[in-house]
Amino acid sequence: MTDIKVTKSQGSRIGNVDWNNLRFGVYFSDHIFVADYIGGKWGDFRIEPYGQMPMEPSLCTLHYGQSIFEGLKAFPDQNGGVNIFRPMMNAKRLNHSASRLCIPEFDENILIEGIEKLVELDKQWIPKAEGCSLYIRPVVYGSGNFLGVHASDTYRLIVMTSPVASYYPEGLNPVKILVTSDYVRVVRGGLGSAKTAANYAASLLGGMKAKEHGYAQVLWLDAISREYIDEVGAMNIMFVIDDTLVTPPLDQGTILAGVTRDTVLALAREWGIKVAERRIAITEIIEAHRNGYLKEVFGTGTAAVISPVGLLNYKDQDMIINNGEIGELSKKFYQTITGIQTGKVEDNHKWNNHINIEL
Ligand SMILES: Cc1ncc(COP(=O)(O)O)c(C=O)c1O
C-alpha cells in the first residue's frame, strides 16, 4: 500500500450535475489524485480537491507540449461494486508515451492504486443509468518554468474523473467518416504511438473541416504515401473483408495501441474469426467495396467501445457500408465488451479491476 495523503473537499459540486444530460467531458468530480516528480523521483502521492492550479507563464508544457494522457472508464457492476476496465493496459501505455516524450515513467501499480482510491472517494459521481460510466483521465506534464527546448526536470501527474453518458443514448448508431488525403496527423518515427497532446492538435483542422461537411470524424492515411490506413481521430479502425477481420498493425509506430483494439482482437481470435493485423491500402478497401467483399467497418475506442461506420468518403466518392446499417459482428463485439464491463457477461479474461464498494 502506497502512502496517499487525502485532503477532502469542503462541500461537493455534485449538485451542479445534470444527470439527464451528461455530455462528455463537462463535469469533473470533487477530487484528483496528484503526484510530483522532483529531484529525480516520483513522490508526494496525494488526493486533493479538484480546483484551480497556480501556473507561471513560463510553464514549459504550454510552450513545448511535453504532455501525455490516458483515458479509461469505471462502470457500475450490476452484481454490486465497480469495474475499472483493463487499467494496467492504460498504465503501461502511459509509460510507453512517457518514454517517447522524455518523461520519467510512473509506477503502474501506484497509478492504479491512486485511481482506485479516487474512484472510491468520489463513488457518488459514478452514474448509475444504463450505459453510463465514470471516465478517468490521467495526465502527466512537464511542470518546469523555463524557456528553451529541452525536457523538464520536474513533472506532475494528475488523475481526474468525469461522469459520462453512454456514447449512444439511442443505441448503436453508424457514423459517416471522411478519408482525408489533404492533411496528415502523424508520421513514421514521430509521435503516433504515444497519447500526447500534439497528435490531437495536429488533427483539429482536418477534423473541423470534416465536421463542416457532415462527417463525424476523419480516417487518417499514412503521411508518406497517403495510401495506407492508420486510424480515426480517437479510435482504431477495423474492416471485415470477406471472412477476415483486418486492422492496421502497430509496428509502423503511427497508431495508438488501443485497449479496445486489443480486446476486440482477443475476442475475435477466441471466437475463431480470422484476424489480420497488416497494412491496408485505401485502394484495397475501394476494391473490396466494389466487389462486395467489404462486409463491415467499425472504430474501436474507450469512448464508444464500437462505432459502426455506415459511410466512408474518399476523394468525393461515397462508399456505403452494409447498407448504412450496424453489422452483426460490430453488434456482437459491442454487446460482449459492454456486458463484461458491467458484469452481465462473465469476465473470463480478468479484464475488470473490481472494487468491492457499495454504490
Ligand atoms: C488516436 C487514438 N486512437 C485510438 C484510440 C482508442 O484507444 P482505446 O481503445 O485505448 O480507447 C484512442 C482513444 O484513446 C485515440 O485517441
Comma- or semicolon-separated keywords:
nine-stranded mixed β-sheet; 18 strands; 359 residues; 23% helix; D-amino Acid Aminotransferase, Chain A, domain 2; single chain; binds pyridoxal-5'-phosphate; alpha+beta
Assign the CATH class of the largest domain.
Alpha Beta
Shape: globular
Beta-strand segment tally: 18
Oligomer: single chain
Report the uncertain regions.
Answer: none
By CATH, the topology of the largest domain is D-amino Acid Aminotransferase, Chain A, domain 2
Residues in helix, %? 10-25%
| Tally of distinct domains | 2
- Rg estimate, integer Å: 21 Å
Task: Give your account of this protein's structure.
The chain folds into two domains: 5-166, D-amino Acid Aminotransferase, Chain A, domain 1; 175-341, Alpha-Beta Barrel (D-amino Acid Aminotransferase, Chain A, domain 2), CATH 3.20.10. It is globular, with a radius of gyration of 21 Å. Helices cover 23% and strands 30% of the residues. The chain starts with a strand and ends with a strand. It has helices spanning 60-64, 87-100, 108-121, 197-212, 259-270, 282-290, 328-341; strands spanning 5-6, 31-38, 41-49, 67-69, 72-76, 82-85, 133-142, 155-164, 175-180, 217-221, 229-232, 236-241, 244-247, 274-277, 294-301, 305-314, 317-320, 352-355. The protein contains seven helices and 18 strands. The chain has 359 residues and is of the alpha+beta class. β2 and β3 form a beta hairpin. Strands 1, 2, 3, 4, 5, 6, 7, 8 and 18 form a nine-stranded mixed sheet that branches. Strands 9, 10, 11, 12, 13, 14, 15, 16 and 17 form a nine-stranded mixed sheet that branches. α2 (87-100) packs across α3 (108-121). Pyridoxal-5'-phosphate (PLP) binds at residues 71, 231, 234-236, 256, 258-261, 300-302.
